Structure formats: C-alpha cells, structure tokens
Amino acid sequence: MSSGVKTLRGNITIWAVRPEAFTPDEWMQPLSAAKWATAKTAGLITHISKAVEDGHSINLTGSATDSSMSAWDIAEVESPLDFEYEVSFDIFRNKPGTIDSPDYDKALALFDGLDIEYFIVKRVDSEQGLDVVAGNILSAFGAKTDYGQDLGDDGSMQMYGCRFKPTGRLNTNFTVAA
Asked: Which domain holds residue 87?
C-alpha cells in the first residue's frame, strides 16, 4: 500500500472461487467482470467475508531467491525465483444445532474436506457486498484445503481453522476488465 493510506476492515471482501470459474489462462490475466457475474450466478463463487475472522492471512510472503553468479557478474546479486504466499484463516461456526448465521455454515461446508481446490480472491478498497465491476483490483491465490481443525476454548467463539496448501497459481493486484 502507499504510505499513509489505511484500508478499513469493512473494505475488504473475500471470496472462495472454484477454479473452473475461469480457464487456466484467464486466471493469469485480468478477470472479466461479466464472466465473474456469470460464474457467481452458476454457484462457482461464494462470498465468505462474513465468516472469516479478522486475523486472516491471504497474502504474499517472502520470495525465494537465487544468488548464483556468472563469470560476467561483478557483485553478488539476489534474483527472485518465484512468489510465495500463504492462505490461512479461521471461520466462525454456529453453535451446534443452530443456524444463527447461514454464512458460517456455508463457509464451513466449502472448506471441511481435504484437497479441495479454490482460488481465494481478495478485494481491498471497495465497500463490502458490492459486486465485482471493471476497475476493481483483485488478488487471486490458488490453494487446496488441508486438514482443518475445530478451534475454541471455554467462553470463546467456536471457530474452524482453515489451512491451505498453495498450488502456485497466483495473480495479484490485477485490475478487473469489463
């Protein structure tokens, strides 16, 4: 982010998107707002922000580097090899036997399994609940579900820990096309 600018929590939206919502080539380019709307109508995109606890980690981490030198080099230089990222968050759960918040159950149903592939897509700096439109800036992180776990202590909220294995498919900070 640019210096001196903060994003309010209410301006972050997170979706779980099935990989088949877009072709492999489309995932690596700016996505189309029209195709996003079609995939959402088809049930391939689920808005999960209401269920995700604020301490989520859906971001790039440090990249691996290489410092190999050729005979031509005059100084050691580190070259980035690839981008590494993490997708990990906790989701709220309803009390057993209740359906107080259907959004919690919907998110749990998506991630309570092993090796289910998603793109976790994050939008920053737009009001939550708004549809994706041309000009929005999104980041898509390819991930497969790993062993999740029930979380909770006496007197605390019931949570489910969603942990993901990166797939290496990544497209960050792209502007949505029409």
From this structure: 11-63+78-175
- 79-94 pLDDT, tens digit each: 665 678 999 999 998 8
Q: For residues 160 and 150, is the Cβ–Cβ distance under 8 A? A: yes
**21: in domain:** yes
Six-digit token pair at 137? 């800036």
Looking at the domain assignment, is residue 70 inside a domain?
no
Would 150 be classed as within a structural domain? yes
Domain assignment of residue 73, yes or no: no
Please provide residue 152's backbone torsions phi and psi, each rounded to the nearest 5 degrees: 155, 145
Query: Which regions of the chain are under pLDDT 70?
Result: 1-10, 63-66, 69, 72-73, 75, 77-82
Number of compact structural domains in the chain: 1
**Per-residue pLDDT, 8:** 54
**pLDDT value of residue 71:** 72
